[in-house]
């Protein structure tokens, strides 16, 4: 098993349906070792599809405090949909896995 990867809108909406009651979940992406060059960890492929958070409050990825790992969370507390955001790899979130 590995952290989930998302390759299209259908997969993104499916993962969103699984996370609706959580504060956020880990996905299997990062931009280490090259800052700003996001990729899936397994397999090591660039992100072909993205759903980065874009709201009045948060523009993701923002790399605040060396955020190098990919999360799926509610970027805007007033919205119900979840989007992608970068986060510190040491943060505590639930996770979504795939086989």
Automatic annotation (TrEMBL):
Residue stretches in coiled coil: none
Family matches, as Gene3D superfamilies: Mannose-Binding Protein A, subunit A
Stored CDD domains: CLECT (cd00037)
Pfam families from the UniProt entry: Lectin_C
InterPro entries documented for this protein: C-type_lectin-like, C-type_lectin-like/link_sf, CLec_Tetranectin-domain, CTDL_fold
Keyword Oxidoreductase: no
SUPFAM superfamilies linked: C-type lectin-like
Gene Ontology MF annotations: carbohydrate binding
Residue ranges annotated for the C-type lectin domain, each copy included: 1-98
The entry's keywords: Lectin
Keyword Magnesium: no
Annotated protein name in UniProt: C-type lectin domain-containing protein
Higher taxonomy: Eukaryota, Metazoa, Spiralia, Lophotrochozoa, Mollusca
